[in-house]
Amino acid sequence: MDKTLHIVGGGMAGSEAAWQAANMGVQVILHEMRPKVETFAHQTGDLAEMVCSNSFRSDDDEQNAVGLLHWEMRAANGLIMNMADRHRLPAGGALAVDREAFAQSVTARLRTHPTIRIENSEITTLPEDGHWVFATGPLTSEKLGTAIANETGTDRLAFFDAIAPIVYFDSIDMSRAWMQSRYDKGETEEERTAYLNCPMDRDQYEAFIDALLAADKTEFHEGETATYFDGCLPIEVMAERGRETLRHGPMKPVGLTNPHSPDEKPHAVVQLRRDNALGTLYNIVGFQTKMKYGAQNNVFKKIPGLEKASFARLGGIHRNTFLNAPTLLDNQMRLRSRPNIRFAGQITGVEGYVESAAMGLLAGRLAAAEMRGHPLPDIPQDSAMGALIHHITGGAEAKTFQPMNVNFGLFRPVDGLKGGRRGRRDRYKAYTDRAKAAWTEWLTKSQLDATASV
């Protein structure tokens, strides 16, 4: 029997799956079609390249479900979190990274692993035998997507992810902008000044909304539909939902004081976050867009402080493919019709870098354990990992299934705790305490089971 685990896709999920499986003693071949077969969103052939944002979001493991997922991945010797910590940038309470150095480090670590081989080849079919993990993400190639659709008997489900623009720092007018994290959040001065802020008064905001609504947008191809994931809406789509939507979303003016005009409260604020260690690049937070390039230049230069901005990258839009996982995958992430195949990452219906890497971590461990003849115990549902995998493999409503970020709404209630906003802090702490205990116990039991079977 073939004891090699084949992993298709070298993004967050595939990279983490390869690392976890190899460290459990199995031979891994990681198939990544780049750079031989390119995508419009990727710029390099590196593994784990970040194409949308350089943020892994909140790192708070006591009050935030994403931060809790960070904690669980670190506890499981996760490669993605290890490299993220090594290349982190100031971002207030968030975990942001130097995306280029991060991807290069992940690539180097996997290339030098003694039981991992990387092959730059495109896989276009679902193999009949062998052990496979498909982690091809939102940019699954057309041929492979067709093969998956033919096998599952369902049409591919799609939404569009939009990419935020990146600005050169030295082109920003700092006489109008300033550095501050909302509510001065962070333990160091660097963290408390992690975001660059561009204020707008009411007239500037209204003119900006008018320009957004009037701007030329990317046209969809015939037969495509624009069903967006609410966590990654293009700004012009948000503006179409109401003129105040952006002011209560990525442009909210709360927790900030403009040192250039401390007595004037901004009507709206555009925030930018550092995108590399040198501090030469900043991405516009929450500004994913499907505007055409010329329109982006015109509209974004209406933002105070960005009138003379030079863009290292303008925004873009791409199609995201995902499975109706509750109907197609079992609780081991295996395709029910072909149990030799597992899926991981965004294609399973999770959304976000962290969630994708987490599902890769589980898929790699589950596959390696099965190959070695010691299946792992069930993932504890009270952990963040367990809450997420339970949701995508059966907890979600299949008829309305859409991509999901990890959040405390996926967690089982803790007995005796109040609901509502007033009890939220105690409730979240109870969730994270319970999750950490469950995850630690599972890791320990998994290691003991593995040792006993060798």
Task: Give a short summary of the structure.
This protein is an alpha+beta fold and 454 residues long.
Note the main attributes of this structure.
MnmG-rel, EC 2.1.1.74, FAD/NAD-bd_sf, Methylenetetrahydrofolate--tRNA-(uracil-5-)-methyltransferase TrmFO, alpha+beta, 13 helices, Elongation Factor Tu (Ef-tu), domain 3, FAD/NAD(P)-binding domain, 454 residues, six-stranded antiparallel sheet
Please tell me about this protein's structure:
The chain is an alpha+beta fold. Helices cover 33% and strands 17% of the residues. It has helices at 12-23, 65-75, 79-86, 99-111, 142-152, 189-192, 202-214, 235-240, 293-300, 325-328, 353-371, 384-395, 424-453; strands spanning 4-8, 27-31, 55-58, 88-89, 94-97, 116-119, 131-134, 157-163, 166-168, 178-179, 195-200, 268-274, 281-284, 311-313, 316-322, 334-335, 338-343. The strands form four sheets. Strands 6-2-1-7-17-16 form a six-stranded mixed β-sheet, covered by helices on one side. Strands 10-11-12-13-9-14 form a six-stranded antiparallel β-sheet. The radius of gyration is 22 Å and the shape is globular. This is Methylenetetrahydrofolate--tRNA-(uracil-5-)-methyltransferase TrmFO. Residues 5-374 form the MnmG N-terminal domain. It comes from Roseovarius phycicola.
What ranges have pLDDT less than 50 throughout 5 or more consecutive residues? none
Tally of alpha and pi helices: 13
What name is given to the CATH topology of the largest domain?
FAD/NAD(P)-binding domain
Shape estimate:
globular
> How are the strands ordered across the major sheet?
6-2-1-7-17-16
Total domains: 2
CATH superfamily caption of the largest domain: FAD/NAD(P)-binding domain
Measured by DSSP, the beta-strand proportion falls in 15-25%
User: From the coordinates shown, what is the CATH architecture of the largest domain?
Assistant: 3-Layer(bba) Sandwich
How many angstroms separate the termini? Answer: 18 Å
Class derived from helix and strand content: alpha+beta
SSE string, helices as H and strands as E: EHEEHHEEHEEHEEEHEHHEEHEEHEEHHH
Tell me the major beta sheet: 6 strands, mixed
Number of strands: 17
CATH class of the largest domain: Alpha Beta
Radius of gyration: 22 Å
**What percentage of residues falls in helices of 4 or more residues?**
25-40%
